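Action item from last meeting closed. Structure (250 res):
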């Protein structure tokens, strides 16, 4: 578990009820932050996580929200400011996949993935900017993907959205640097999640051949980098993309 001191900080995590998002929420809370997260549909999972956070002594809340919807995103941010008084850390983690070769990809599958993975980052980042600027401090951490760096066949929509997140992060880092707001990106490789558990042994073996460390990452290993970027230890780091990929992008 991480040892960064985030006591007194308020964090907002999109897509925080399961997978990498859940690990990020728990790691931020273990580091001392009060945590609010959004989720799309799993009400029971979200409520259980809130109970777990409160049991740790943290203030916590969950909002059912479509991160691709700008009005809903603004409403979440305003509710967090009203209930918690500030937002110190934003983690844009919400994301989906709808894979397929480009020649067979529907316009709907393209739009759904780009809106959820990229427009959501615009929505929440824009919504928190005014608050962070008035605080003269803030940490924006965007979860991209290693395929946004190196590309991947059959994922043109997902790769485009995740590469867009990297470019967006660089631009807002330049815009917000003078206000003591840092914006950085994390590009995870293959992570042990529900998605990878569904792969058969042959598929897993094929994945491991492209990972120099010959293993998948644990969600906690991504969350640890989030906590570093959320902490004062990263105050002179902005506009960067950190690959958590076991060496895939070398």
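Sequence:
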């Amino acid at each position: 578990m991480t040892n960064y001191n985030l006591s007194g900080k308020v964090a907002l995590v999109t897509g925080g009820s399961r997978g990498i998002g859940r690990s990020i929420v728990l790691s931020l809370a273990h580091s001392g932050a009060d945590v609010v997260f959004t989720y799309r549909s799993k009400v029971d999972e979200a409520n259980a996580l809130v109970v777990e956070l409160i049991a740790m002594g943290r203030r916590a809340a969950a909002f059912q929200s479509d991160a691709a919807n700008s009005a809903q995103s603004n409403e979440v941010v305003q509710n967090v400011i009203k209930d918690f008084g500030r937002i110190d850390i934003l983690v844009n983690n919400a994301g989906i996949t709808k894979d397929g070769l480009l020649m067979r990809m529907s316009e709907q599958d393209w739009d759904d993935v780009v809106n959820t993975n990229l427009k959501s980052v615009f929505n929440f980042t824009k919504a928190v900017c005014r608050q962070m600027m008035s605080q003269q401090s803030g940490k924006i951490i965007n979860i991209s993907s290693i395929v946004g760096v190196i590309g991947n066949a059959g994922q043109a929509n997902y790769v485009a959205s995740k590469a867009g997140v990297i470019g967006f992060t660089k631009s807002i880092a330049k815009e917000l640097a003078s206000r003591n707001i840092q914006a950085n990106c994390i590009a995870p490789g293959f992570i042990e999640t529900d998605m990878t558990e569904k792969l058969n042994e042959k598929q897993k073996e094929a994945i491991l051949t492209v990972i120099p460390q010959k293993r998948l990452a644990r969600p906690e290993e991504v969350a640890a980098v989030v906590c570093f970027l959320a902490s004062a230890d990263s105050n002179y780091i902005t506009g960067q993309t950190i690959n958590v990929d076991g060496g895939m992008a070398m």
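Note appended to the action item: The chain has nine helices and seven strands.
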